[in-house]
Amino acid sequence: MSVILEFTIAAENFRLGRVLSGLSEMEFELERIVPTGHMVMPFVWVTGKNHAAFEEHVRTDPAVKELLVLDDLDGSGLYRIEWNDSPTDLIEAIAAAEASILQARGNDDWVFRLRFNDHDALSRFHDDVLEREMPIHVDRTYTLSEAPDRGHRFDLTPEQREALLLALRQGYFATPREGSLEELTDELGITRQALSNRLRRANEKVLRGALLASDTDVDDTP
Fold first, then answer.
1. Are 112 and 7 in contact (CB under 8 A)?
2. Which of 101, 123, 160, 209 is the most buried (most CB within 10 A)?
3. Which of 120, 82, 83 is nearest to 98 (CA)?
4. What backbone torsions phi and psi does residue 100 show, to the nearest 5 degrees?
């Protein structure tokens, strides 16, 4: 049975966190990591107003070989980071354990939620982290049947679930529409671009969870 691990870690304690930190107005969310040979390439969503400063900040880091822009949507960008050498820390440990990233977001501090195929895989990851002397703080572990709230069924982050519920309750999805993005942003205290991105990604996760057996099982029957 698959098992979920939730933990927090300071950005200064793993390479990707150190590379991304330094611009307090930006929000980061790790989408996935792709092992390529002996390297591990992270794909990161970046939300904020100053993408030019972010790109310059990352590209000047000696650990970074290349920063590629893959998508630019509503004030958020999807980036791929290529390293000069393989980072032997948290990101490599996640890849080695073949864990699925359900949530990974932060700036100065990061929150991770990972899914492992079984308890043995989780144990191997934990042993790996200890061996690398990575100071993570484990918040909780649980199986899917023990999930603490229904939002985890769709792999929603707490922020995505909050935005989606507020939009639903305020009538944002009603016809005719009863609420506006401006009203929602005022209540949540985030930018219009950040809210639009959050709702879009939350909707995608809910639709995938409701309509698809898995991310790769698509039924084309009308």
1. yes
2. 160
3. 120
4. -90, 135
